[in-house]
Amino acid sequence: MRVHSQIISKQGLPIFVVLPYEEYEDILERFEEIEDVQSVMESEDDRSERFPLSLVEKIASGENPIKVFREYRKISQVELAKRMEVSRQYISQLESGARSGSPRVLKAIAKVLNVDLDDIT
Question: pTM (2 decimals)?
Answer without folding.
Answer: 0.65
